[in-house]
Amino acid sequence: MTQYHKHRLHADTESAEPQLSIQEAATIGDIDLVRSLIEKGTEVDSREDHSLRTALHCAAMNRHKSVAELLLASGANTDTRDVWPRVTPLHYAAEGGYTEIVEFLIVKGADVDARRKYPAGDTPLEIARAMDYGDLAELLTKHGAKE
Predict the structure, then answer these.
(1) Which residues pair with 53 in a beta bridge?
(2) Which member of 3, 18, 60, 81 has the lowest number of beta carbons within 10 Å of its beta carbon?
(3) What is the largest CA-CA distance in the chain?
(4) Distance (Å, rounded) from C-alpha 39 to C-alpha 75?
(5) pLDDT tens digits for range 11-55
(6) Domain limits of the chain?
(7) C-alpha distances in angstroms, 10 versus 38, 65, 113?
(8) DSSP H helical ranges for 97-133
(9) What is the mean pLDDT of the chain?
(10) Residue 109: helix, strand or coil by DSSP?
(11) Can you say how many angstroms the Cα of residue 91 is from the centroid of all Cα atoms in its chain?
(12) Per CATH, domain 22-142 is 1.25.40.20
């Protein structure tokens, strides 16, 4: 797993230490750094690490809605999948029980019926039910998720 620096680095700061990537900045919720990296030309859907997650995956799995909002406003793809297990940001948000992020992603056009490859080819609704997130399952159904 990627190691993250303990202190904040900004894209416009001169430092001998390596700058955080957009994925690392999204993981820790550093919206200022994410914004600065985008302004400097970092591709919002660029990929990093062994799973090839995007910054939106990282924001969704770590409950950073403001970062997700910025990424989507900057052109991020709501339905991008990582390499394995072929998961969308919506799957990660559903697995975490992050209702606010799930709803936001749905409103922005995320596919509520997307199936991940592993472990069982399940949808965000099936994940919500398996995790016993009743309110989240209801939200997904309200937005058209198939039973």
Answers:
(1) 48
(2) 3
(3) 53
(4) 13
(5) 455 555 568 999 999 999 999 999 999 999 999 999 976 779 999
(6) 22-142
(7) 12, 20, 37
(8) 99-107, 124-130
(9) 88
(10) coil
(11) 9
(12) yes
